[in-house]
Structures are given as structure tokens and as C-alpha cells.
Automatic annotation (TrEMBL):
Residues 1-22 form the signal peptide. Keywords: Signal. This is DUF481 domain-containing protein. It comes from Corallococcus terminator.
């Protein structure tokens, strides 16, 4: 099946700037299937008095295809994911998610490069259906193998199907820098700013007389990360996000610390762990926008997930997973907790 990706990427790499003779191709396919026990299938908040959230069984499948076509001075990289989740009792939480990304780059000498990238994600089903589209142009500077800088300029369109007042579009600009200290240690910094324009009018601030205007937000993200690659693989990332709005109650400040680790255990078992801590503040005292989840399992301010994987053949791994996500809303006493236990397998085919 992976061979079916080759003709398309070969043509794209050839058209982008290399000759057919110079083009090389790599591709891979991966499929994952899991049986899940979800402690909070409807993803409800609880006040500690009423009955708790409902648990349910689910089947989850995910397929991923990746490909890379490389010419003498050019490169095309593509990725596509298709995932689905089917619940037994909470059928209204069944989801179908598709995501794809395509990037093409052209080297201008030995240090500079330019390119274009695009991405799309579409989630259907459940209570959080959305489509997220984006495209940008970028320039890269890489004087040696240790340093790489990328600056991009693009546009984004977001459609939140349960509540179209949350739809927005606008321009984005971003920067990413990576520096490799040695073969095991590397640092990264990133920043992004976007202008988001909405359809509805902005809510006026109390005590101020305002001429009605459409809602407009400025979204800033900045952070830094550290990665270690040795007997144990470690990464640690801090990110700050500020959404500043001309609509009362929509401004938010968030701090997030995320860490991950991977190591080999006896009996050829691999342990993967990831955790995050978050802190949010709303200067207006409230937050009116609907909760929009852009990452499939990144549902709470705080999370921890563990996965054990062991190969049962050259292409198939058996996996056991567990994750917990939780947060609390201090102003109304509502809390959110969700645990998911999973047992399944991953199959991979690579050229």
C-alpha cells in the first residue's frame, strides 16, 4: 500500500525543482486499533453533588500515511491521518477525524531555502465538530547542522460547527528556531501571532459606551523547549498564550508546561509517558467563548498519559495505555475528570 504514494510524491518533487532522475522517495503506513474504557464518555463537568459522568466502552482506529520526495534542490513532504471512535452507549460522541499536511521547499544555495505549506483538519461527530484550515509561505536559514531558523507568513480559517459565533479567520506570522548543542541535546524557541476576525459584534465592556464593532482577537503564542536524545528520550516545553479581545469576557491568558519521556524496559518493552500542567487566567473574570479542543486528547489543563508497547512481530506492536485529564473551574466549583484505558495494537509498513 505504501507504494501507492510514490508516483504522486515523485511527480511533485520533480515539478517543484528537481529532475526525475534525481528524485528519491520514502513512505510509510501505520495503523492502530484499540479497545477503550472511557470513564467520562460525554465529557461532562461535575459539581460534586449530582451523579458523576457516564462510563462507556469504545473502539478506536487510526491510520497514518507519510511520504517524502526529494530532488536535487527540492523536497516535498506529505502526511495524512484518518481516525474514528465508536462508543457503545454514547453514540452521540462517535467521531471521525481527518488531518492532512503538505509542504514543499526549495534550496537557494547552501544556507537559504523557501517553501509553502498547508494543513487541514476536520472533525465530525460528537459535540465539538470543527474544521481548521491553514496555508503559509516560509523562508529558512540553516548555516550548518546545528542551527535552523524558519519564518512564515500565512492565513487561517477555523469553523466551529456547534456554534458559528466562534468561527474566525485571519492572518498569522510565526518564527521557529532550533539549536543543537551536541548530538544529544537541543534547544528550540517559537513564537506566533495571529489576527482573528469573527462574524458577531463584540460585547461591550461594562461602564463604557462603545460603537458596536465586530469581534476581533489577537492571539499570541510564545515558548521554548529542550530535547535530550540518549538512552532515555526526554522533552520539556513551556508555552504562553494570550488571547486579547475587544469583546468583554473573551480575553484569556494561559501558561502550559508539557513533558514527555521514552525509555526501554526489560523484555523489549518500551514505556512512553507524557504529562502537562496548565494555568489559565481570565482578566474580565469570565470566559464566554465555547470550549474549543484542537488536539484530540488535550482536553484539560492537567494531564498524564502512559503507554507500554512490546513488539510481537517485525511489524506489529501490542500496546497498553492509560491517560487522565482533569481541570477545575474555581468560580463555579465545577470540575472535569476523565480517564481512558486502552488495549490494542499498531501495525507499520515502511520503505
Amino acid at each position: 500500500m505504501a507504494r501507492r504514494l510514490r508516483p504522486l510524491l515523485l511527480v511533485l518533487a520533480t515539478l517543484w525543482g528537481g529532475g526525475a532522475r534525481a528524485a528519491e522517495w520514502q513512505g510509510s503506513l501505520k495503523g492502530t486499533g484499540r479497545m477503550l474504557v472511557d470513564s467520562n464518555a460525554p465529557r461532562d463537568f461535575s459539581d460534586g453533588v449530582t451523579s458523576g459522568p457516564g462510563a462507556d466502552l469504545a473502539l478506536s482506529v487510526l491510520g497514518t500515511a507519510e511520504g517524502r520526495g526529494t530532488g536535487e534542490r527540492s523536497q516535498v513532504v506529505g502526511r495524512y491521518e484518518l481516525g474514528a471512535r465508536k462508543y457503545v452507549a454514547f453514540g452521540n460522541e462517535d467521531t471521525l477525524v481527518q488531518a492532512g499536511a503538505l509542504e514543499g521547499s526549495l534550496a537557494l544555495g547552501t544556507e537559504w531555502g523557501v517553501g509553502a505549506e498547508g494543513h487541514a483538519k476536520d472533525r465530525r461527530g460528537g459535540s465539538r465538530a470543527y474544521s481548521d484550515l491553514g496555508a503559509s509561505l516560509f523562508a529558512e536559514y540553516a548555516p550548518d547542522v546545528r542551527l535552523a531558523l524558519r519564518v512564515r507568513l500565512g492565513a487561517r480559517r477555523f469553523v466551529y460547527r456547534p456554534d458559528h459565533t466562534a468561527d474566525f479567520g485571519g492572518a498569522e506570522v510565526g518564527v521557529l528556531g532550533r539549536y543543537r548543542l551536541d548530538r544529544r541535546h537541543s534547544l528550540s524557541v517559537f513564537g506566533e501571532w495571529g489576527s482573528r476576525r469573527y462574524g458577531p459584534l463584540a460585547r461591550p465592556f461594562p461602564g463604557y459606551v462603545q460603537t458596536p464593532d465586530r469581534r476581533q482577537d489577537g492571539a499570541l503564542v510564545a515558548g521554548a523547549g529542550y530535547t535530550y536524545r540518549g538512552p532515555v528520550k526526554l522533552s520539556l516545553t513551556y508555552a504562553f498564550q494570550e488571547v486579547s479581545s475587544n469583546s468583554f469576557g473573551e480575553t484569556a491568558l494561559r501558561h502550559r508546561l508539557t513533558g514527555s519521556a521514552g525509555l526501554r524496559l526489560p523484555w523489549n518493552v518500551t514505556l512512553l509517558a507524557q504529562g502537562s500542567l496548565g494555568l489559565a487566567r481570565y482578566p474580565d473574570g469570565i470566559f464566554l467563548s465555547p470550549e474549543i479542543i484542537l488536539v484530540e486528547e488535550d482536553e484539560g489543563q492537567n494531564s498524564l498519559s502512559l503507554k507500554l508497547a512490546r513488539p510481537v512481530s517485525s511489524r506489529v506492536d501490542l500496546e497498553l495505555s492509560w491517560g487522565i485529564w482533569s481541570t477545575r473551574l474555581p468560580r463555579n466549583g465545577l470540575s472535569y475528570t476523565r480517564q481512558v484505558f486502552g488495549l490494542g495494537f499498531t501495525w507499520r509498513d515502511q520503505e
